[in-house]
């Protein structure tokens, strides 16, 4: 059951141009966001929730006329839950370049009157944080009580402490890493190649052709989904079970795991934008706060003023606990405040989305100590 009930999205429009790290310039842009709870008089109780690759602003609750449309992190947000809406004011936002209402590749390019398509600039984690700071200004929030997120969302929380060290008091970096490994970049590139080589991609201007590169997006999601799960979880959930009537030695769906992946691929390809997927994965690849510090993460994080909670999951092989401990070791090296929890979970990288009692207890305990 949803913790916050009926919610509705809002749109913030920004007319001041946003210069992007990659050299592009957005003359104006929209951000779609939702809020849960009440901003207190001191405006000291706001928490920004940053989403992962395929996420969006709808973090909790359900939308009007669609009670099944529950927010992607609903299990952690609401009265009495770790992100307690009786104490905190929670903000969820769809990132720039997204496909759930914020300005992105499918939006109209004011210079041409057509969808941006391939002309929409690549955006980075730093750009997202800059845009989110505009949203904080729009909401009258000088400093967040906390910025948090899982996976790519955790990277944004980390970047917040570096881009705006005086505007975030706590950072909750969950199932994340200080930068992608070569293996992770390789996974992303295979996913992108599936999209880029789809005959319906049309160089990213598929909107003008009235088609979508569904096949490529489907394959990209199937590949990504494999990396989000753990081997143990897949073995337990699907094993080598064959579907009824299988055994023809053909290439249609025969094993249950094949059926599951194709379902997830079709579901995702039906709602997500291919150009957004390309840009989200590039933002992941490029994120590396230590790059300008001779690969010295401790030096890179030295300017952060926030206190940190870093959480990792035992079966997460995409962003393994060792990657989280790199962040912890750098902060400890600097004498900065950090708490670390490594949670036993069977759910792989997706563990941060699950209702794991130990994990939620860690977040709940940490947030209860946040002074407002």
TrEMBL record:
Q: Name one GO cellular component term.
A: cytoplasm
- Acyltransferase in keyword set: yes
* Site residues (Important for acyl-CoA specificity), renumbered to this chain: 318
Which Pfam family, just one, is annotated for this protein?
Abhydrolase_1
- InterPro entries for the chain: AB_hydrolase_1 (IPR000073), AB_hydrolase_fold (IPR029058), HAT_MetX-like (IPR008220)
Tell me the keywords, alphabetical order: Acyltransferase, Amino-acid biosynthesis, Cytoplasm, Methionine biosynthesis, Transferase
Molecular-function GO terms, alphabetical: homoserine O-acetyltransferase activity; homoserine O-succinyltransferase activity
Q: Which SUPFAM superfamilies match?
A: alpha/beta-Hydrolases
Please give the function described in this protein's UniProt entry: Transfers a succinyl group from succinyl-CoA to L-homoserine, forming succinyl-L-homoserine.
Q: What is this protein called?
A: Homoserine O-succinyltransferase
Record the organism: Sulfuritalea hydrogenivorans sk43H
Its gene?
A: metX
